Amino acid sequence: MQGFTLLEVLIAVLVLAVGLIGGTAMQLHAMRARHESALLSTATRLAAGMAERIRANSAQLPVYLAAQYDAHAEPVPSRPGALCLDAACDAGQLAQLDIYELKRQVRTALPAGRARICRDAQTWADGRLRWECSGEPAAPVVIKVGWRGKRPDGTPDGDVDDPSPGAVIAVAGVAP
């Protein structure tokens, strides 16, 4: 017998097609994981930068603790009264500018990003980071930054109304 039968050729093409589909699915999964990793890195960088600003201006901690932002609800963050570019600012104005800058960076760097600064003694619940804050006066100051992810088909991933934060950074060196 010489040559291949049509059945053998069809089986070989089927095996090749399954292999290509598997390889493509693996590549798509790797791209999603890389994207999520980049978002997590960005969220961590934004939270760490804000922690440094809070430490540098710790007398204005009550102003910082009022900061909440949700790009889904507020697509364009409102500008503070003073941008501190042409004239000197007091500590309160500088805190407002810091919050505005955080909101602006979250809006531009994260898809439907969120940020919150609060006192929270229980950042984890049921194995997930949580947005709620305990608000206890002695609790550590934390910065929570996150985003709303999407499934491969483009639909929102998980709980759209209350997704888990991507990163939570505790602000060390700030007195309760």
From TrEMBL:
Keywords from the named record: Membrane, Transmembrane, Transmembrane helix
UniProt entry tagged with the keyword Secreted: no
Residue stretches making up the Type IV pilin Tt1218-like domain: 25-99
InterPro entries linked to this entry: N_methyl_site, Pilus_4_PilV, Tt1218-like_dom
Listed transmembrane segments: 6-26
UniProt keyword Transmembrane, yes or no: yes
Pfam family, any one: Tt1218-like
Name the record gives this protein: Type IV pilus modification protein PilV
Organism: Pseudoduganella flava
